[in-house]
Write the structure tokens for this entry.
Amino acid sequence: MSTLKTTLTGYAGYRGREGHWAFLLHRITGLGVVLFLTIHIVDIAFVYFQPALFLDALALYQTTLFGIGEIALIFCVFFHGVNGLRIAYFDMFKPGLWSIEMQRKTTRTTLIIAIILWLPAAVWMVRNILLHNYGIVLFGG
Amino acid sequence: MAATTETVRRVKVKPNYEMIAWKWMRYSAFALIPLVWIHAILQDVVVGVHAMDLGYVAERWASLFWRVFDALLLGFAFAHGVNGLRQVLNDFIHGEKGRKILNWSLFIFWLAIFLIGAIALIGGVNQQFPLE
Ligand code: HEM
Ligand code: HEM
Ligand code: HEM
């Protein structure tokens, strides 16, 4: 298991600043979304195989706990998407620009774009949870 | 300090499986932006899970456009995600034998979940079930 330990201490101990954070966040968000997607394909497939179970799954998605998970999911989808575009763009069209300075700058821009895209969605989802689960009308009731 | 000149040498490599997988991650990325973002924003933010039931899915899948959209989403997003998972696990699993087992396991995992999704997408909402 020494490779496991080496890899994990590498993940945690490497001090690459923005490049390091971007790598970790891209991994965590990507893994979070595949995990969700695997469950999601099965729960949607219940509409064909076991409709009663689909309704149970839906009830679960409507709880506050899952609602918070969904707000996190939307962030993952935005950050991973913007950062993935950044990676794909540099790799395929501008490989010469992979410099440390450029990475630091574009990583910060990526994070800012992701947060700007995510915030309005997150506010609206908090509003939905408060409205449907607690009867609290924040706005637009 | 001695002056150095930089020359860029371009080489043609015969495409192998890993290179195709690497390119796939990048090409699919461009398709995934509209697919995943539109779907997630529409379902989770605009409509919201509180407004959903079996009738909602039946209504959506009555439209050929959204069925094709979901088929593309299923094809692109899940293959991208499972290949990404393979990339991550390659950091932990070395050696030819381990990698072989990993590749096959993930392929079977991908195929099983993909088929479940595809069958449901083609079959549609089960009409045997009493919709209230
Ligand atoms: C739609 C559902 C959900 C999504 C998309 C989601 C997504 C995520 C993601 C991406 C992370 C970060 C992973 C990491 O740091 O390694 C995370 C962490 C976490 N989630 Fe969720 N989540 C969901 C539902 C839930 C639910 C229902 C619970 C509670 C039972 C939960 C409990 C946690 C905990 C405790 C952590 C922290 C794990 C850690 O510190 O390593 N999540 N979630
Ligand atoms: C929590 C947020 C989400 C909700 C509430 C949601 C809701 C739904 C619903 C109601 C359907 C049924 C068909 C339709 O209405 O078009 C569906 C299908 C689907 N969704 Fe989502 N979705 C969410 C997030 C995502 C994400 C982030 C992805 C991709 C990464 C995704 C991928 C898919 C796929 C592939 C299908 C087709 C499933 C099949 O073929 O059986 N969804 N989703
Ligand atoms: C929204 C559009 C998306 C874009 C632009 C995108 C882009 C990318 C790119 C370019 C990579 C390769 C990174 C590298 O090799 O350094 C990657 C990795 C990955 N993606 Fe995506 N992706 C998107 C959506 C998704 C979705 C929906 C999932 C989950 C189903 C996902 C899961 C993953 C995983 C697990 C990895 C591997 C992470 C790693 O190696 O650290 N991505 N993505």
Notes: Chain A touches chain B at residues 3-4, 7, 27, 30-31, 33-34, 37-38, 41-42, 44-49, 51-52, 54-55, 58, 61-62, 66-67, 70, 73-74, 77-78, 81, 84-85, 87-88, 91-92, 121, 124-125, 128, 132 (CB under 8 Å).
